[in-house]
Amino acid sequence: MKEILSGNEAVARGAYEGGLHFACAYPGTPSTEILENMTKYKEIHSHWSVNEKTSLETALGASFGGMRALVAMKHVGLNVAADPLFSAGYIGAKGALVIITADDPGMHSSQNEQDNRNYARAAKIPMLEPSDSQEAKDFTKIALKISEEFDTPVLIRLTTRISHSKSIVEFAERENVEVKGYEKNVKKNLVMPAHARALHKKVEERLLKLKEFSNDFKYNTIEYKNKNIGIITSGISYQYVKESMPDASVLKISLSWPLPDRIIKEFADNVERLYVVEENDPFIETEVKAMGIKITGKEIIPIVGELNPRIVKESFNAVEKYKLKETMEKAPGRPPALCPGCPHTSVFHAINKLKLIATGDIGCYTLGALPPLSAMDTCVDMGASITNALGLEYSLKGRDKRKIVAVIGDSTFYHSGITGLIDLVYNKGTSTVIILDNSITAMTGHQDNPGTGKTLMGEDSPKFDLERLIKGLGIEHVYSVDSYNLEEVANLIKRETERSAPSVIIARRPCILLPEMKKKKFDKYEIDENKCTGCQMCVKLGCPAISFDKEKKKALINKSLCVGCSLCFQVCKFGAIKKVQGE
Amino acid sequence: MNTKIIIAGVGGQGILLASDILCEVAMKAGFDTKKSEVHGMSQRGGDVVSHVIFGEKVYSPLISYNEADVILSFEQVEALRNLDYLKDGGVMIINDIRILPVPVASGMADYPKDAVGEVKKFVKNTIVLDAESMAKELGNVKVMNVILLGVMAKQVKIIKKEIWIEALKANVPPKTIDVNIKAFEKGYDFS
Ligand SMILES: Cc1ncc(C[n+]2csc(CCOP(=O)(O)OP(=O)(O)O)c2C)c(N)n1
């Protein structure tokens, strides 16, 4: 059977065919759909973890018990999971352990463009790089085999253009594999210095064996054509090279750590000029140069941003640089924005009005940083809002009277906000933390989390009681408020930021895009043009349903977008916004 | 030569579904096919672009500047934004509606006065239609996408109309098959 699958769907399919028993992940673009698709296969237990570190540790636990396990994350997630990654490299894998990292060259939805091939080298574990969906499926199955055969975790590196591109995939049957069962083995599974010294030796031996495997690996392939130009490449860059340089000889590397040194030498010997085309870091390039082979890479191929066939072709001077058309009228940018009726809006409106310093975090709510709300000062990594606030508090003390709030989403709070909050209490911080609890992980497309009372497989699970948890951490002042009550939100934030003790405000309202919210009936609002003074207070909410007519000097509500949150009604001082009943 | 098509628009307009159907149609017609798009931030009202390529053998899932045979834009300004991807002699199809970006709505940027006219200056084969109104005439705003697919299908001559009809039947809710087929025909006969 043939189907058109995205790279992420194909990984899930490959895991199923390869006899996987266990999968977990914390969501993150572009990796999220791997676990979402895993739930199609009832033979596999799959669940959302609280963060990437817990996720990798859980998968390793399943591997201890002899299950075939897989864990998926976005590239920055592997930073969070780096600690168990390096230990797992020493421990190896009784049941297969496959780790998917989905990198994001071009930063379509990420804060950096780190190249996670570097993790394979640093943690001394093998890495596969598929170049389309068929390979994403096949390589997942191969990774499960390599993992058990060589007693090692295996990394698979996807990139946005692999994860989110679709191509035709041929299906196969599932291979049924028994769970091997648990046996105590402290010399391997308990990495204290005495054990780890022996394990490190084994890891180095394992790398040598893997290098041999890489040299024989049938997906590391040479395609000879014109031998004047030879290009080494991997992953999606392979497709760009084939598209833009159809006559060049190509060495396609699929197992990119450890690199197949003999094949590289052979290829280098047989072509006149040797190049490497790879996105972001000069990973292959550095290794080839260390082998003493002359090769051209980042001298011509950009290191910043993602590649495409045109960039490759231009880099080789095979085509003239494209000159953008000079249009008289330019297309205005269309940045993402908080949705009409987004419950996050009121908090940012209040922060802006109160002129607070807001250390921010990662989620839909990061959009509160954009004008006209412009209510966020920093965004570093998941969980950083609270500890950034704590540090900033120290540097402001006695020097600057401005108040600090940390703003963090519910999923992000569970991910890594809790430890930061303990730190804040322990070290006597007095900043106010605002948890934006929209009862879902919204940014990545609505995944359940410990606050929703549901698991990935749709089972009920204990619904977390945030107030009790926070009180338990030793914070006396914990208050919740309805996000749609603008005045109460603002008053509470004002009161709590003035308090010289730590406090937490939970601003609560389910995400407007949740199916149960979409079903609800609501009244819409409209502008009474006779009363509108053109003050633009409503426009400053940044609601996509509200626009301002510059000629008429009146605000305008787009009825088809309005969801009746009433925030504009609440900010209007002139009674110019009124409810329209029964729509 | 492979056929390269870009579908562009705004988050929530159904761009991804439309390009999924195109991809399926291409496979059913016996071609190798790939498509690429970016999900994530774009879903929050940002612009959305999907690249679809089909032919005997497809390597890159991305279309470069000056390569697209057809661009189907679900909104005026998105046609202008993607203009550079259209090859010389390519066809631009524009749904004649405006969706204001937030910076425009809040008065921080301007929407072009005549985005369609601007595109026409560069592209001889520009097809402009108000598929939203046409869909309303059919009694179902949701079939706007299918009307637009119909217009595009007419331009992609190497795929037979029957394959499109079959794929539509398989991809829309059973109750709406009739209105969807009507919508497709309406688009197909537009130009
Ligand atoms: C380490 C890490 N893992 C995952 C992500 C991807 N990611 C960005 S925001 C987000 C979830 C945000 O959810 P929440 O805090 O509930 O805020 P919401 O989007 O619902 O407003 C995730 C998973 C990331 N940026 N960094």
UniProtKB/TrEMBL annotation, chain B:
tRNA-binding listed as a keyword: no
InterPro entries: IorB_Oxidoreductase, Pyrv/ketoisovalerate_OxRed_cat, Pyrv_flavodox_OxRed_cen
GO molecular function, one term: oxidoreductase activity, acting on the aldehyde or oxo group of donors
Keyword hit for Magnesium: no
Domain Pyruvate/ketoisovalerate oxidoreductase catalytic residues, every copy: 11-189
Spans through the membrane: none
Keyword tags: Oxidoreductase, Pyruvate
Pfam families: POR
NCBIfam families to which the protein is assigned, alphabetical: PRK06853.1-2, PRK06853.1-5
Record protein name field: Indolepyruvate oxidoreductase subunit beta
The organism of origin for this protein: candidate division WOR-3 bacterium
